[in-house]
Amino acid sequence: MNAVAAMKHYKQVSVHSNLMDASPHRLVQMLMEGVLEKVAEAKGNMINQYIAKKGKDIGTAISIIAGLQSSLNKDAGGEVAENLDNLYDYMCRRLVLANSCNDETILDEVTSLMIEIKSGWDGIAETTKK
């Protein structure tokens, strides 16, 4: 097994292990981290003109956001859940546009939005620990 394959295997085992031990709150954090990672990879691939990889990364980011969106409980979450639903929809549409126009600034915008959402989510964890 070469070094790259070994690292990929290690990462898969590590992610699987973290998933098994994660709370529901931590799982959402991991999904948000996944979006940030895939958008960053897409930006690098966009800069380097690796079109297929860029498209795959953006597609994965959209899928993760769609998963976050589908997990919203609009009955219990009320206006906050509705606003998140709209924001997730906006982010997905922006990612599609970034992909088709090769626009790094749109990827930066989506990253900024996800960081803001994630920081709020991370704050919930701190609040519940106290």
Protein architecture, described:
This protein is mainly alpha-helical and 130 residues long. The chain has one domain (25-129): Flagellar protein FliS (Four Helix Bundle (Hemerythrin (Met), subunit A)), CATH 1.20.120. It contains five helices and no strands. It has helices spanning 3-21, 24-47, 51-70, 74-101, 104-129. It is globular and about 45 Å long. The termini are far apart. 18% of the residues are buried.
Question: What would you say about this model in short?
Answer:
With 130 residues, this protein is mainly α.
SSE layout:
Elements: H1 3-21, H2 24-47, H3 51-70, H4 74-101, H5 104-129
CATH class designation: Mainly Alpha
**How helical, in percent, are the residues?**
over 70%
CATH arch. level architecture: Up-down Bundle
Number of strands: 0
Give the SSE order as H and E letters.
HHHHH
Summed up, the helix count is: 5
CATH domain topology = Four Helix Bundle (Hemerythrin (Met), subunit A)
CATH homologous superfamily - what is it?
Flagellar protein FliS
Please tell me what the overall shape is: globular
Give the N-to-C terminal Cα separation: 46 Å
What ranges have pLDDT less than 50 throughout 5 or more consecutive residues? none
Average the pLDDT over all residues and give the rounded result: 87
Tell me the number of structural domains.
Answer: 1
Q: Major sheet: size, sense and barrel closure? A: none
Beta-strand portion reads under 5%
Helix-strand category: mainly alpha
Radius of gyration, taken over Cα atoms and rounded to an integer in Å: 16 Å
